[in-house]
## 1
Amino acid sequence: MNALKIIRLIVLAVAVVGAFVAIPEAALIMAVLGLVMGVMGDMADNSNRTYMLVFVVALASVSGAAEPLPVIGVPISDIMGNLSTIMNAAALGIILNAIKERVME
């Protein structure tokens, strides 16, 4: 198992646990994990970058859509909101990597 897969599992765990338990400095933890995931990600191909950035925008748009569902709606929305926070930071890492590659050409 490589480091990126471990980071992805930690990201998923933090997003799910953070929906049910108050984690101190949760926003900072999610932002750092997302940034690390974005910088370490395999985004050499422009189609991968485009997919990820579109995914981030879509996730931010629909993260609260499940909230009206009885019983399971709020936890699902909280998990999606946490994932949205993490993926927004990952998108920042992807964008920073793309800028670095353009500058270093």
## 2
Amino acid sequence: MRLRISALFLSVALSTAAASAQSNQTLTGTVSDAMCGAHHMMQGKTPAQCTRECVKQGSDFALVSGGKIYTLKGDKTHFDKFAGENVVVKGKVSGTTISVDSITASKS
């Protein structure tokens, strides 16, 4: 009986840890690409142009927020509309990846 209770407790604890590791959050930041992050490297290109070029070359869209870079997972055509812009992203954060539920232009 004790073993079952301990196993149940451990199972609940692990489930809670997994749920908190991947939680719904709202983040504000700038849409960029994972390679350049906050510092775009293409000379003569705007941040939006550089982001789009890097994504065409295989980089992922990213959100630069609070000094961190999060890889965006979801509809790339939707992210492309916001390249180089400040946005509000809602989604599930797991480490440095956001599974995006919604992305909108930031009001500030």
## 3
Amino acid sequence: MHPIRSQNLDFYLEYDMTENPDSYNFFLRHAYLKVGSLLLGRSFTTFIDSAVLPDVDTGSAPGQIFLKRDQIRWTRLFRDDALELALALEQPDSQISAPNCACIRNYDDDHIPYVASRLTWWADWGQLSISGMLRSLRWQQNEQSLSKTVGGAGLSGRIKLGVVDDLRFMANYGNGLGRFITSGAYADASLARDFSELNPHPVVTMLAAYQHYWSEKWRSTFSLSASQSSLSGSASEQMTKRARSAQVNLFWSPVPDLSIGLEFLHGQRQLLNKQDGELNRLMFSVRYTL
């Protein structure tokens, strides 16, 4: 960190080796430069407040928005630093499903960055954020090109319960939110059967999590999550209509920077054709923070 004309210059880099469960390739999570109010690089999308993400495995909750984007973000504090406004232009791409196909393909032919904004309010009881997003979906094949403008809104918060316990929540609704949802079960839109237009998929997501400290070294988080999409007539019968999950864990921190935990997840999913299935998973983790 170095001062530049009374501004702080910060650089942050974070990576892991979990891009593919069958390999140990490096995967870039965050890489950004921050000068005063301006952030340049890769970080959490501005559409979410990362401070409300629950202390559970983030890759499986179907009601959670969790996405990192290359972006240019500007922030401004108001009212004695109790309010923060964030505006960003972020890396565009679209997840489109073909007619009568359950596959979801990623298209990076988008030419217009999407706009994301968030207003966060901090108080003695915790914090609350409202967010908005406007983006252009785009599909291109050979000389044919289709586009559609979509948007979404979100509400999230973190409420203090006692000295260290808290309740975290988020709820989101909009067209083209499939790209933002952690489970990867939803497309942003589907192509019409004659490839004449894009039909966006409205999605609603909800998540609530309670974190409780049993003692200074032991803590648990219980999380409930759900999402549902309104699919167009051109969507495949094999596409996900709704999903939900419950997660509970127990973490032990013998020293402040080390967490050793065990987590159980139960998930359910239903397709448009009424087929459903469930997942039960037990996960052991060790995390050390430098």
## 4
Amino acid sequence: MATIFTRIVNGEIPCHKVAETADYLAFLDIRPQAKGHTLCIPKREVDYIFDLEDEALAGLLIFAKKVAKALRQAVPCKRIGIAVIGIEVPHAHVHLIPLNAVSDIAFKEPLDIPANEMAELAAKIAALV
């Protein structure tokens, strides 16, 4: 079954379109965290952003960069934040959120992880890269 984003791409569900190319689409989030909160998606449905082919992932980020620059001009803010969550809709996407403070993206309190655990985790990840 097609995701809600694929249905938007196919014109089955309306959206507030911001930008579009042959491969990517940007539209306003219907549950915005800030005025101008925009989603950028590849038109081809892929569940997990890191399952995109390198070229498609690079293309998505370059597309998002163009959208972010326009968004920053349209919505006064200090920065455009980018978030990749990918749990709420099984279709790769990035959130572009106008920010004036760190709290504009809902980061929770940081974890207190001992330095030895941090070193061990870093080494484990590095060995897998």
